Amino acid sequence: MESLIEFLDRSPSRFHAADNLRRELAGAGYEPLFEGRPWTLVPGGKYCAVRGGASLIAFRIPERGARGFMISASHSDSPTFRIKENAELAGPEGYLRLNVERYGGMLCAPWLDRPLTVAGRVLVKAGEGIETRLAYVDRDLLMIPNVAIHMNRSANDGFKYDPKCDMVPLMGLGAEKGAFRAVVAESAGCKPEDILGTDLFLCPRQKAVVWGAGNEFVSSPRLDDLQCAWGCFRGFLAAGESASVPVFALLDNEEVGSLTRQGADGTFLADVLERVCAALGVDRAAATANSFLVSADNAHAVHPNHPEYHDATHRPAMNGGVVIKHGVRYATDGVSQAVFAALCQRAGVPVQHFANRSDLPGGGTLGLISTAHVSVNTVDIGLAQLAMHSCYETAGAKDTDYLIQAMTAFYAASFREEDGRFSLNN
Predict the structure, then answer these.
(1) What is the dihedral of CA 343, 346, 349, 351, to 10 degrees?
(2) pLDDT digits (tens, 9 = 90+) for 212-254
(3) Which residues in the chain show pLDDT less than 50?
């Protein structure tokens, strides 16, 4: 649990999350690969590629040949507010505010009346070129103030938030023009005039905590989906060798549809698998047929105050184990459910099942999107949590370890399908 807490606190943006995992991989001996250069892969080699600064794919080459791929995919982004390029809004009455837009489908109310700051990346002039720098303003910089109940009597009666006015963060009073850019430049270690581009987002200042009568809960910003990303990553690192290539994928932009070059609807995963097959002289069609994908994105726990929102027979509980997700917006079918359940049984990990209540369609995941580019057997899973898409979410303190155990077993296995029979042995 301590390692998850540390990872969450060190990852205020998708770019920080990907960079933190990249650094861990480098420390574990993973060689960086660059998409614009030829790849030379050798048996026993460990490799990592990054696209777009917020998507990362790591893999290992087995010593004794590769039958297929055992893949997990989770996402690095979370619902938040994107800061627009011309960010400063002057006034009224001497206020300095920031111009923002919604990124993803978030709960708006929890963002109000709490300390916020800014994180992301800055593109900086460097000689004749451009370099990327991570930016995180490590102080209480912003707040989105509520309107007093005396002036908004409907605040507790289903109030509808207008993002262009109700969700605008306040930065200062009487501040000079250019104050925001100066703060960002200081964080990035550059001059304001050297900034050529930015990808900056709001983030809460509150840290991750373990709490409850028996310390049974963990709460943090960005649990969806960094909790699953961390669990899959630790399982990837811990697993022993199999007859398949283990692949860990962290993909960006899931919360806005994955329609980017570094998203699940881009070609990043397919490109990496194709290059691995080419380097190893493996038939890609055969390798794909002997591959399996775990799409890992958190699931809804039964709400303590509103249990009626859940399906009558699919009611996941926090600390109840890994959740297999079913429905028309998920990639899970009978085969992928059986395969993953068998691996969890092998690892001694409890399994739960989630389906949306029939009149409440839920959100999708990157599972179905990924299979449009990499057509492999796919299961959608997650860990049960409360307040999904809030800026501060809650999950079970035990479930991360359950996911690590399940993914360690997954990556140590090798999948094969022939004539309706499925093997998970090497």
Answers:
(1) 50
(2) 999 999 999 999 999 999 999 999 999 999 999 999 999 999 9
(3) none
3-state secondary structure of 87: strand
How buried is residue 207: exposed, middle or buried, by Cβ count under 10 Å (0-12/13-18/19+)?
exposed
146 and 259 inside one domain: no
Nearest-angstrom CA–CA distance, 118 and 139: 9
| Bridge partners (DSSP) listed for residue 59 | 47, 247
Q: Number of folded domains in the chain?
A: 2
Instruction: Please say whether the beta carbons of 338 and 422 come within 8 A.
Output: yes
Give the rounded distance of the alpha carbon of 201 from its chain centre.
Answer: 15
SS3 call for 104 = coil
**Is 185 in contact with 194 (CB distance < 8 Å)?**
yes
pLDDT computed for residue 355 by the predictor = 96
Position 43 in a domain? yes
Whether residues 289 and 325 share a domain: the answer is yes
pLDDT of residue 420: 84
Q: For the residues of 212-277, what is the DSSP string, one character each? A: STTS-EEEETTHHHHHHHHHHHHHHHHPPP-SSEEEEEEES-GGGTS-STTSTTSSHHHHHHHHHH
Check whether residue 345 and residue 239 sit in a common domain.
yes
Distance, CA of 216 to CA of 211 (rounded, Å) = 6
Claim to verify: residue 176 and residue 192 sit in the same structural domain: yes
> Other CB atoms closer than 10 Å to residue 195's CB: what's the count?
18
Is 329 in a helix, a strand, or coil? coil
3-state percent helix, strand, coil for the chain, nearest multiple of 5: 25, 30, 45
Give the strand order in the sheet containing 129-136.
129-136, 116-126, 195-204, 80-90, 95-103, 170-173
Torsion of CA 229, 370, 275, 131, to 10 degrees: -60
Q: What is the pLDDT of residues 127-163, one digit of tens each?
A: 999 999 999 999 999 999 999 999 999 889 988 999 9
Residue 316 near residue 352, CB atoms below 8 Å: yes
- Pair (14, 85) in one structural domain: no
Q: What are phi and psi of 361, to 5 degrees?
A: -65, 135
- Which residue segment(s) compose the domain that 296 sits in? 2-78+221-423
pLDDT (tens digit, 9 = 90+) per residue, 339-356? 999 999 999 999 999 999
Looking at 283-383, which runs of residues are DSSP E strands? 292-296, 299-300, 322-326, 351-355, 377-382
Residues 146 and 282 occupy one common structural domain: no
pLDDT for the residue numbered 425: 85
